[in-house]
Design brief:
The protein is of the alpha/beta class. The protein is built from 14 helices and eleven strands. Helix 3 packs across helix 11 and helix 5 packs across helix 6.
Amino acid sequence: MMNLSLNLPRVWSKKRLTTLLAGAALLLTTALTGCGGADKETQSPGTANSSTPASSSASETAKDYPKVVRIGYQKGNTLNILKAHGNLDERLKELGISVEWNVFPSGGTVLEALTAGQIDYGNAADGSGVFAQAGGKEFVYVGNDLPNPEGMGIMVHSDSPIKTIADLKGKKVAVVKGGNHHYLTVLALERAGLQADDVEYVFVKDASEGRAVFETKQVDALGSWDPFFATVQIDLKPVTLTDGADYSPNRTFYYSTKEFTSKYPDLVKIILEETDVADKWANANKPEVVKLLTEELGIDEQSIRTAVERRTYGVEAITPEIIAPQQQLADTYYRIGLIPEKVDVSELMPVDAPWKPELGK
């Protein structure tokens, strides 16, 4: 800080004194602003390309940004990895912002909290967004993960006479209603020349109940998603009729509130970019990711390794090519009666938004 000491003569004209004081105030303001700008350029420890814009001063940060950003996540997902990696906390700390991490049991509960104003940002599956929009909730899609079609599938018992999707006609299939694997089942049945209701769905509340009814052979087939899909594959050695490849991209989306994206588009951009930094670290350090998620989820390491190894982590900005399959999902949900009316997902999926991230290669 510059030390400004003024030794004034006893007698000054009023005009001269006013001029001198104004000049000193201007010099002091310039010095303070310069100190604030230097802090902004400091990179976070261990995170590449994580500097904040040099044009933002400390006074602007305090004035324009919230003190806390509230993020909702589920154990085992990409925001869990981001939290553990710590680079977002470091990046926002430079702006005088702390991160409040809130864990939720499902994507649906993340969106409930988001639309109720309890959090500012979170991620959830593709179907969760469609259900929330159909329920009249207000939110915005701000980005998404890379596709993970191999992370879901339809399985039958190893000794089952069912060999193809077409053989499922008239059989019992366990799914969580509206889940990504439920959607996969509908698409696979229709491609095989059947109708969505040509099977008897047994709707279960979660992956554990789905496994239980499958393991005790109360159903003929099970739809599931990673890491639970991997767990069943390893433990029970079923026959996998299909995964999601060539059916559905199985994306997880990042969501925020209209208020937050309107007020702080640059913060949304930062969160997406830092998520991509953590994702690229995850791709290069999968053994560490396996260890982290094994501890977080309490699932055996082999199952977590299977799920992690068949996935590529990364962030994408919303594009028309991403909107199209999401609209197909919404249309399918309406057609089979999962939502009461048609929705236009593009209304909540802006392209080239001001928070569009600059993603490293």
